[in-house]
Amino acid sequence: MTPKTLAAAWPSWAGRAAVVWSLLYATGAALAAVTGPAFGYSLLGKGTGTGPEAAAAALYGTAAVLAYALLRRPGVRWLSTAAWAVVALCLTSGFAALLSPLHLLFFLSRNQPPVDWAALANQTAAVLGAILWACAALAHRRHALGTCPYCGRHPGGRAGDRPAGRDGWAHGTAPSAAPPNPAPAPRAGLVAVAALVPYTALKTAWALGVTPGYTGTGRPGVDPEYTSDLGIRLYDHGVDVTAVLALLGMALALALTRPWGRRLPRLPLLALGWAGAGALAPFGIFLATVGALAWAGAVDIGMADHAPWVVAVAYSSFSGYGLALARATRAHQRATRRPCERC
C-alpha cells in the first residue's frame, strides 16, 4: 500500500493506529520509570526521578484503553470528545518539538545549550501521536453522526434516512448538490494581526532606540552573548528579527482569510497555520499567566529591568494570535475543501 493510498484510507486505520501508538508510548514511559529518567520522558529534559515517567505511563495507558473503546463502541459520541483531550495531552508532551525548528534559524541566537536529541525524538513522537489521535477522534465522531468519513458532510438527506454500506458508514444513494464552501473568516485574520501589533511595535521601538517599558542599561531585546552577528547588524539598523517574524505571522493570518490566499498552495498554508496555532496559543497563555503573577509580585522572573506590563501585555499577545490563527486556519480549510468524490 502506497503512502498516498494509506492517507486516503485513514478513517479505516486511525483507531487502530491510536491504540498501537498509545501502547508503545506508555510502554516507553513505564521503562523510563523503572530504569530512571531516560528516553526523553524526564520532565523538561532534567533528571526528576520516576514520578513524571510513571504518570506518563498511567495517562497514556489509559489513553490506549480509550482508543480500544473507540473501536468497540463506534456509536458512543462522548468517546470522541474524550479523544480530543488525549490530543491536547499529546500536544502538551510534544510542545517543545513544535518550537524546535527555531534551532535552524542560526541568525536568531547562538551559544544555546546543546539539543537533547532523545527528548526531541520523544516530543516528535508525541506530536505524531496527536495527529493519529486527531484522526481517530474525527473518524469516530463522523461514524457516530452518520456523516461521510472523508469530508464530514451529509451526502444527501438526513443521516438517519441513509442505510449503512458495506463499510459500516452511511452513504446516500442520490447525493444532492454539494453546498457552497463557506467564506473565509476575515475577522479572525484581523484579530490575529491586531494581537501581534503590541509585540511588533515594542520590539521595533527598542531596535530604533526608543525603550518604553525598559528601565535598565544597555540595549533591550538583544544580548550580544546569544544574538548572532547578523541579528546584531540588523538590530543596529532598527530591524529586530523577531519583529520580522511577527510580520510574517501577520501575513500568514491574512493569507488564510483573504481571497488572494486561495491562490497559494493549500497544504503548506494549513500546515503553517495549525503548527503556529498549536505552538503559540499555549505559549502565550503561559506567558500571560507568568506576566500577571510577576506584575502582582507573586513570582520573580528575573526581569527587574523591564516594566511589569512588558511580559503580561506584549508577550502574552501570542495567545490571542494563536487562537485567532486557529480560527483562520479552520475557516481556510473549510473554504478550500474540494468536493468529496466518495459521497
From TrEMBL:
The chain crosses the membrane at residues 20-42, 54-71, 83-108, 120-139, 238-257, 269-295, 307-328. Residues 159-169 have a biased composition (Basic and acidic residues). This is Uncharacterized protein. The keyword Ribonucleoprotein does not apply. Residues 159-183 are annotated as: Disordered. Keywords: Membrane, Transmembrane, Transmembrane helix. The keyword Transmembrane applies. It comes from Streptomyces wedmorensis.
